[in-house]
Design goal:
598 residues; alpha/beta; two-stranded parallel sheet
Length: 598
């Protein structure tokens, strides 16, 4: 078996794409991107135009060699496949399925009926011709090795038909289809859609590219019929003629060549993606929060087992790559050097064989400053947008390990969770749902909007006002960094801005409860750790109660008693009252002078 990667190119018919021309175009694009010359790979481009005109000798349809695995194995294969697909999307860009052209199916169907498409029609309708074409292609292939399949036009249909018939020891490290008509019902040869409900076990990944002006692709990809693969749109600006559908046109697109080059040769460099200037400098507030969150997430992973651990590790891998990428991009824009502690966590997400580097043990933070940060980590979903239910004892154990690393002692970690649990029980009297508690996102964004944008960040203690405002503007309220910063801002902002935001009709009672829970958790944690109370928590709750009651009185005068808005306001009042009652009963109500000073 040769060590050279194999490129199998399956051509369309009647496109005028000569082999020497498409090879030259692909080589030019690959080398411009920094990949090796195409000559370093073994290129196999079978000729089957004659076989499409009629069958010479009757041959049997090549058998299915790659069987569909059993239920459990199929689930495992699907999960691994989706991880690889996620990595490819991260490398190539956003999935773009397209919406199709009005009357596109009718136009493609009419075109197939034309004499110029007779060869394509023969493959779809004549089993003898189909068997002959597949047999001739298989005869050109080795029995083992690593192969990349590129299928253009009818060649994409043949590729989908062929992939499960390949020799068992031939590993398909990537399949790229271009200008494909497979989304059209007329190209569902031998019920391909049914037989490819799940990705074949021998296929690493499959991406499809459609050109905006390619009438054969009809302005849509293939994921509408094969939902487990990914589509990408390109726009070569070619006129809607044969040229727009040409393989040469597709192979000149950087993103298409990137997919082929990565499948053939792997990453262009074994180095991690560009991370700009690296220096042995301390992380800023946002970077420190991200490092602590990633460290805590890795400690959670270490405590998991089996299927849950595998899924959590895959989600964490994606989140870590995104976090590091976002922070590095921010630093590049601002001219800031990237701390070595952060740079060491970068890796090539598009290489599924590479694990996410584990962050170094957490640095020490004094007890007072750790209160808000650790409360946030305990209450937020650190792997958003993914959602995985983790047993509370696993989360608690990881928090104990984290606080021990930080020099705070494992009891601090216990107190973080006990304070959070107590706060929820005080407000709602129900069992803590940690996944739900980590889903403040949309509600937090609404509160920020209600306070007049990012102005409430001016009171934030998690980081300086300018830092938080800038970070929120950069990362938004979504994702791990944005979610933590948003929640941190809401917990530490204080003053009338947050109170107005919580009282706003745009803020649900559930979102208010989540914020109040976090505020109350920090006070309970301070008490357990024998730290001074933060009077701004009391002030924020009192001002929130005043504003909510004012809104309730304004609407209650004329609204129906059972109106949803009135019910929401009543629920808000109950939540704030319960929090204030607890603070009073536990002598956490600040002295009048102290409250006035804040």
């Amino acid at each position: 078996m040769s060590d050279r990667p194999i490129l199998l190119f399956l051509h369309g018919v009647g496109t005028g794409d000569r082999e020497d021309l498409w090879k030259a175009r692909l080589t030019e694009t690959l080398t411009a991107l920094g990949y090796p010359h195409l000559d370093t790979a073994e290129v196999i481009a079978p000729k089957y135009a004659h076989a499409l005109r009629g069958w010479d000798e009757k041959v049997d349809l090549p058998p299915i060699t790659v069987k569909q695995p059993g239920r459990d194995a199929a689930r495992q294969n699907r999960r691994v496949f989706e991880r690889r697909m996620g990595a490819i999307e991260f490398r190539l860009g956003r999935h773009s399925p397209g919406s199709g052209l009005p009357g596109g199916d009718v136009a493609v169907g009419a075109a197939v009926a034309l004499p110029s498409f007779k060869q394509a029609r023969s493959y779809l309708t004549d089993g003898r011709i189909r068997a002959q074409v597949l047999d001739r292609i298989l005869a050109k292939l080795p029995s083992s090795g690593r192969i990349v399949i590129v299928g253009h036009s009818l060649g994409s249909v043949i590729a989908a038909d062929l992939v499960r018939r390949l020799p068992v020891a031939l590993e398909v490290v990537g399949m790229i289809t271009i200008g494909s008509p497979l989304a059209h019902a007329g190209f569902d040869v031998d019920k391909l859609r049914e037989s490819l409900k799940e990705p074949p076990a021998n296929l690493a990944w499959w991406v499809n590219f459609w050109n905006t002006s390619d009438l054969v692709a009809a302005h849509r990809g293939l994921s509408s019929v094969f939902p487990w693969m990914i589509d990408f749109r390109i726009d070569t600006k070619a006129p809607p003629s044969k040229r727009a559908h040409s393989a040469i046109e597709y192979l000149g697109a950087d993103v298409v060549a990137e997919a082929i080059g990565f499948a053939l040769f792997g990453s262009r460099s074994k180095e991690v993606a560009r991370i700009g200037r690296v220096a042995d400098i301390p992380p800023d507030a946002t970077e420190l929060l991200a490092l602590l969150a990633l460290r805590y997430a890795h400690l959670i992973k270490l405590g998991l087992e089996g299927d849950v651990r595998e899924r959590f590790a895959g989600a964490l891998r994606s989140v870590q790559a995104t976090v590091v990428d976002e922070l590095v991009a921010r630093n590049a824009v601002t001219g800031r050097q990237t701390p070595a502690a952060l740079a060491s966590l970068a890796f090539d997400l598009s290489d599924p064989a590479v694990d996410a580097p584990e962050p170094a043990p957490a640095v020490h933070i004094v007890k007072d400053e750790a209160v808000v940060v650790l409360t946030l980590l305990a209450s937020e979903n650190l792997i958003r947008p993914f959602e995985i239910s983790i047993p509370t004892e696993k989360l608690r154990g990881a928090m104990q390990d984290l606080t021990a690393e930080m020099g705070l002692g494992s009891k601090y970690g216990t107190d973080v969770f006990d304070a959070s649990k107590t706060a929820r029980e005080i407000l709602a009297g129900r069992t803590v749902n940690w996944l739900k508690w980590g889903a403040l996102g949309a509600g937090a964004a609404a509160i920020i909007v209600a306070t007049g944008g990012l102005a409430l960040a001016a009171g934030a203690g998690l980081a300086g006002a300018a830092v938080v405002t800038s970070a929120l503007a950069t990362f938004g309220p979504g994702g791990m960094i944005g979610g933590l910063l948003t929640a941190g801002t809401l917990v530490t902002a204080g003053g009338g801005g947050i109170a107005l935001g919580l009282a706003s009709p745009n803020t649900t009672a559930e979102a208010l409860e989540e914020v109040v829970q976090r505020l109350l958790s920090t006070e309970i944690l301070r008490r357990r750790q024998h730290l001074e109370s933060d009077p701004s928590v009391w002030q924020t709750l009192v001002e929130t109660e005043i504003n909510v009651r004012r809104e309730h009185e304004r609407l209650d005068e004329f609204s129906d008693p059972s109106a949803p808005g009135i019910k929401q306001l009543k629920a808000k009042i109950v939540a704030v009252e319960r929090a204030l009652d607890y603070l009073r009963e536990n002598a956490l109500e600040p002295e009048v002078e102290a409250a006035l000073e804040t």
